[in-house]
Specification:
30% helix; two-stranded antiparallel sheet; single chain; alpha/beta
């Protein structure tokens, strides 16, 4: 059974990041919800937050064997008003909890609520130190809100004596390449405990991308002259630990093999209709793992994976 599980609190976001399916949709439609109280209890709803009664069932089912719960996937988790309560429930069940956020909604009361709920680790995405660089990727966002959010988290952590790890995360992009040194020098002064600089996954990478950093050491891709295109640096081997250790559950209850299945091409089952044990050991899951062990290159989501 999986030892770590990602559960999606909300499947929508305020930003329009160019390499995020939710962000791409945000940039092209006005139909994403403005009401943060929306849930998916109504089957006619497409976007919203996970119903609490459904979430409690998930935690009860995974608590006997999982040790880590990631409360994020594609949407912005802080748009789910019940997030602190979700963290509290997971912590009482003995799960280590992680949240990743754009921090646009994170004020001091929410920072305190997260700390008091027992959140173990929060990842704050800030892909630019100045507004001019930040907004080139985090479109529609404010870098000052992110910086203030980190300060709020530090204040809340100190006041509540929480053991919450505050992690600042920045993607290696051409747009912020000149600021990498600033991140390394200033992240602690801002209030973060840790800095993670991360290579970026790009969708249209074969002919290059304007987001690729000039220093190719910090790109997931390299130019292959024989092919006349860019290819992933990491060789594609017929193995992957993730398929035997974790999974993703979206707001609708669909169980996915991993976080790279952003378009939900490989739904293994729905936890509202089957137990996670049935899905985990079911035929779809077994077939998917079998294909990966023999013909991984045929699985679309695996061809652009750095695991």
């Amino acid at each position: 059974m999986p030892t770590f599980v990602s559960v999606e609190p909300a499947n929508f976001c305020q930003l329009a990041c160019p390499e995020c399916p939710v962000g791409i949709l945000r940039a092209s439609t006005t139909h994403l919800p403005a009401n943060y109280e929306t849930t998916l209890d109504n089957t006619r709803d497409i976007y919203g937050t996970i119903p609490m009664h459904f979430y409690k069932q998930i935690i009860a089912r995974i608590a006997p064997y999982a040790h880590t719960l990631q409360l994020f996937w594609q949407g912005e988790p802080l748009l789910c008003n019940q997030l602190p309560e979700m963290i509290r429930i997971a912590r009482e069940a003995g799960l280590y909890t992680i949240v990743s956020t754009n921090a646009q909604r994170l004020d001091l009361p929410l920072a305190r609520a997260l700390a008091e709920a027992g959140l173990n680790r929060i990842i704050v995405s800030m892909d630019g130190w100045t507004q001019a660089t930040y907004e080139q990727y985090r479109r529609g966002g404010s870098v000052e809100k992110v910086k203030q959010a980190v300060r709020y988290l530090r204040q809340a952590k100190t006041e509540t004596r929480a053991r919450m790890l505050i992690e600042l995360q920045c993607l290696y992009l051409s747009t912020n390449e000149a600021e990498w040194g600033i991140f390394r020098r200033e992240y602690k002064a801002l209030g973060a405990d840790r800095l993670t600089m991360k290579t970026a996954q790009l969708y249209d990478y074969k002919q290059g991308s304007p987001l690729m950093p000039a220093d190719q050491r910090f790109s997931r891709y390299r130019y292959e002259a024989k092919l006349g295109e860019y290819i992933p640096k990491r060789p594609l081997h017929n193995h992957c630990y993730r398929l035997w250790s974790g999974c993703v559950i979206d707001v609708n209850g669909n169980v996915l093999p991993c976080c790279y299945d952003k378009s939900e091409q490989y739904v293994l089952g729905n936890i509202r209709e089957q137990s996670l044990r049935q899905i985990w050991h079911g035929q779809k899951a077994q077939d998917f793992r079998g294909t990966l062990l023999t013909r991984r290159a045929q699985i679309t989501i695996c061809t652009n994976c750095d695991e």
